[in-house]
User: Which sequence fits this backbone?
């Protein structure tokens, strides 16, 4: 039995036609629609819903989207796109970091004499740490 290859367009349509076609359209055209909404400042959601309906886009109940449905759908789409983009950034950062290299053992530095004006074990440790790096701590004036 020979199987026919499934066209990508058929799979894309099947994957994106679940529920609201308005949601799918907003996901696909997110950046463009976002620019329109930002330009409008306070969009006329009722009229937007009517226009989406005129072009065949439907809400989750297969009806013409109301203004409130359009506004809420846009809110959900913005949230979903932000989450997808954050996940992509996180994956990219994880890919760049690669596997974690094993830590090499570090021998503790010999305690150094405390700088003038500093006393106690913490001051000695900090002075030693900064002394090894070539940096110096600012002097404390009391």
Assistant:
């Amino acid at each position: 039995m020979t199987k026919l290859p499934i066209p990508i367009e058929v799979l894309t349509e099947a994957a994106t036609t679940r529920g609201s076609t308005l949601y799918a359209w907003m996901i696909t055209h997110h950046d463009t629609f976002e620019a329109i909404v930002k330009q409008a400042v306070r969009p006329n959601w009722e009229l937007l819903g009517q226009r989406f309906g005129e072009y065949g886009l439907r809400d989750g109940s297969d009806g013409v989207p109301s203004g409130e449905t359009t506004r809420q759908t846009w809110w959900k789409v913005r949230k979903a796109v932000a989450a997808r983009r954050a996940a992509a950034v996180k994956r990219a950062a994880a890919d760049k970091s690669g596997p974690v290299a094993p830590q090499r053992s570090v021998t503790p530095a010999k305690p150094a004499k405390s700088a003038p004006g500093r006393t106690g074990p913490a001051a000695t440790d900090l002075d030693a740490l900064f002394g090894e790096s070539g940096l110096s701590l600012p002097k404390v004036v009391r």
In short: The radius of gyration is 30 Å. The chain has a mean pLDDT of 79. The helical segments are 8-16, 21-28, 30-40, 45-54, 67-97, 121-133. The longest helix spans residues 67-97.
